Amino acid sequence: MNPALLGDHSRLRYDALIGVGGIGAGSFFQLSGNQTLGREESRAGRFLDQRDYCKLHIIAQNFSALLGPEFPTILLGRVGDDDPGRRLIAEMRDIGLDVRHVDLCPGEQTMFSICFLYPDGSGGNLTTEDSACSRVDAAFVERARPDFLRYRGRGIALAAPETPLESRAALLRMATEHGFFRAAAFTSLEVPVVLTGGLLRQVDLLALNRSEAEAALQAGPGALDASELAARTIDLLECDYPRLRISITAGASGSWYWDGSENHFTPALAVPVRNTAGAGDAHLGALLAGIAAGLSNQEACRLAALAAAHSVTSPHTIHPNLDGDSLRKFAAEFDASFLWDRKQP
């Protein structure tokens, strides 16, 4: 049994991942009716027996599931000194994530999200702003400097949403200083600020979902079909950031990856959908794992699509059976066993 899908580390491009972002828990609320919730609308629904997690945790666990717990995956974050916070730290430690820099904060609450779902499986998130995650600042990120020194020139830095932009900017600056590959994601509200503030000059890979790409273009929801949205977003960003790699996910419409010279389209796998929340984060975690493992762009994109498809078959934002073996079986079931059939050098 090999729990890591990318267990052969002989081709590794990078030796560690250091990430900052949201760590927290949440609940799912099932709305009645598929029509988009209106600004002043009152809608009935019910809470579901499903587990929600925040972005850094989801990305990191998908990343680690593919490369194995022996690959250092170092998280920076804060949770409340409460039952959810203690449970989350224990869960992350148990699967091999490095939580030395995840603090329990007395007097603070762990970040909590309400994930609302429509009957068709789509949905969104509402997340608390005044949680322990909001206390992650540049000084807190500085404590990871010895880890950056240890992996100088051989690490991946991940700046994920749900902590203040200040903390993510500090991580990206330190990553630049130490020659790391720098990946980042931002919320729809943050994207316009980031585009005008110059932070993308310290990013190598920008991950966007459909709504974040629409925010970059200042396009209304659904105003463009997914392929046109991706093409226009890439054109916009390439103009100012010609070396930036761009990942755009659009659910069942597939995903696009601009590698600086070529746009790679990967169709989504047709699988039964239980919940789409967390699929984009699973995609990013797997894409980074593929990059770390030295896969080609096409292989990394297909691996990311596989992880996203696996994610949506679970009612939880982290699949409870997430590991290399479950992904291997899942790929075989849906005729996507492309990675372990490849010829090794």
Write a brief caption for the model.
Helix content is about 35%, strand content about 25%. It has one domain (about 15-35, about 45-330): UDP-N-acetylmuramoyl-L-alanine:D-glutamate ligase, CATH 3.40.1190.20. Helix 1 (about 55-65) crosses helix 9 (about 280-290).
Order of helices and strands: EEEHEHEEEHHEHEHEHHEEEHHH
- Write the CATH fold name: UDP-N-acetylmuramoyl-L-alanine:D-glutamate ligase
Derived from helix and strand composition plus strand pairing, the structural class reads alpha/beta
How many E strands? 13
What is the 3D shape?
A: globular
Percent range for helical residues? 25-40%
Termini separation: 23 Å
Low-confidence stretches: 339-345
- What is the CATH-assigned architecture? 3-Layer(aba) Sandwich
Mean pLDDT, rounded to whole units? 91
What is the CATH class name? Alpha Beta
What is the CATH superfamily? Ribokinase
Please list the strands of the largest sheet in the order they lie side by side: 5-4-1-8-9-10-11-12-13
Counted by DSSP, the helix tally is 11
Give the tally of structural domains: 1
Rg computed from alpha carbons, rounded to a whole number of angstroms? 19 Å
Portion in strands: 15-25%
**Major β-sheet annotation:** 9 strands, mixed
What is the quaternary state of this protein?
Answer: single chain
